[in-house]
Amino acid sequence: MTKLLKLLSIIPFLFSWGLFAATFKLSEESLREVAEKGSPQIDQIEAAFLNAAVKEGEKSQEYAPELFGRGSFSETHERAIIQFQPIFSPIKQAQLGVQKKFRQGFDTSAYVVTDQRSANSAAIGKFDNVTTTTLAFTVQMDLWKNIFGRMSKADLESSELEKKRAQIEKDIQLKSFKISLRRVYWSLVANNEARLISQELLKTAQKQLDESKLRLKNAVAEADEVARYEAQLASRQGTLLYLEYQKEIFIKQLRNLLPELSRHELELQKYDLNKTLTEVLMCTAAIAQQPSVPFEHTQYDETVALLKQIKSNNALVNSRYADADVSLFGTVKSTGIGSDSIHQGLTRGNYGDSFSDQTDQNRTGYEVGVSFNLPLGSVKEGTERVKELYDEKRLLALINSTNIQVETTHQQLSKSIALLTSVIRAQKVSSEQLSKRLKLMRKKYEQARVSVDELVNDQDALLNSELTTIETQLQILNTLFDYLVIFTETPCPFNRN
Question: What is the pTM of this model?
Answer without folding.
Answer: 0.75
